[in-house]
Amino acid sequence: MKYLIVGLGNIGDEYRNTRHNIGFKVLDALAEASNTSFTTERYGDVAQCRLKNKQMVLLKPSTYMNLSGNAVRYWKEKEKIELENILVIVDDIALPFGAIRIKPSGSDAGHNGLKNIAQMLGTQAYPRLRFGIGDNFPRGCQIDYVLGHFTLDERQKLPVRIDVAIDAIKAFVLSGLQFAMCNFNNK
Fold first, then answer.
1. For the domain 2-184, what is the CATH superfamily, name and number?
2. Where are the domains of the chain?
3. CA distance linking residue 47 with residue 27, whole number of Å
4. What whole-number distance in Å separates Cα of residue 146 and Cα of residue 125?
5. Which of 33, 67, 78, 180 is the most buried (most CB within 10 A)?
6. 3-state DSSP call for residue 55?
7. From CA 144, how far away is CA 129, in angstroms rounded?
8. Active-site hit among 4, 5, 19, 20
9. Eight-state DSSP code of residue 18
10. What is the DSSP string of 81-135?
11. How far is residue 127's CA from residue 124's CA, in Å, rounded to a whole number?
12. Lateral strand order in the sheet of 86-92
């Protein structure tokens, strides 16, 4: 059985350690923990690894956030992966820093990456893991905050929170969406 695990972010050095790129950071850590590395392929950087008898295709789209759906649709079709076996990792300002919320579907909540994925897949019914980045910004400064860097305190706590996200991804792949939701939401 195959799974497509997508980490959303923007390519380029100027975005490397921004809050908006938490999806890339989670996948980088998952690839490292799985002793695999990314290669640049069509629409993104891709790594493949196994988790017991399951195959995971890790995807970091190179299409920029607002066009992530092109990459997701291409790799879904290329690898013949069912919609319910896709998990998209995305930043979320509505959640406190480091909080995780896994959902089977839902609105894009104003997130342009999720909006484009829904447009390209023709549905919002695909699993996603929302990684909280907090909302500690003045009114009208959301873009600067999301595209800004984590604070020193957040950077110190980030490795533990990324490990929790990786455990949640593994639970999704090995035990299913409901198990992952019950055991990792808001942890």
1. Peptidyl-tRNA hydrolase (3.40.50.1470)
2. 2-184
3. 9
4. 25
5. 180
6. strand
7. 23
8. 20
9. B
10. --GGGEEEEEEETTS-TT-EEEESS---TT-HHHHHHHHHHT-S-S-EEEEE---
11. 9
12. 39-41, 44-51, 54-61, 2-7, 86-92, 128-132, 100-103
> Residue 138: is its pLDDT beyond 90?
no
Q: Yes or no: say if 54 and 1 are a contact pair by the CB < 8 Å rule.
A: yes
15-39 per-position pLDDT tens digit: 889 999 999 999 999 999 999 999 9
Nearest to 58 by CA among 121, 35, 133, 139: 35
Residue located via tokens 């690898």: 79
Structure tokens at 52: 């017991």
d(CA 13, CA 155): 18
Residue type at position 101: R
Note the pLDDT tens digit of each residue in 94-131: 999 999 999 999 888 888 899 999 999 999 999 999 99
Residue whose pair of structure tokens reads 């800004």 in the numeric block: 148
Question: Phi and psi (nearest 5°) for 10?
Answer: -115, 140
Residue 156 near residue 39 (C-beta atoms within 8 A): no
CB contact set of 133 (below 8 Å; sequence gap of 6+): 19, 22, 91, 92, 93, 95, 97, 146
Quick check: is 20 catalytic?
yes
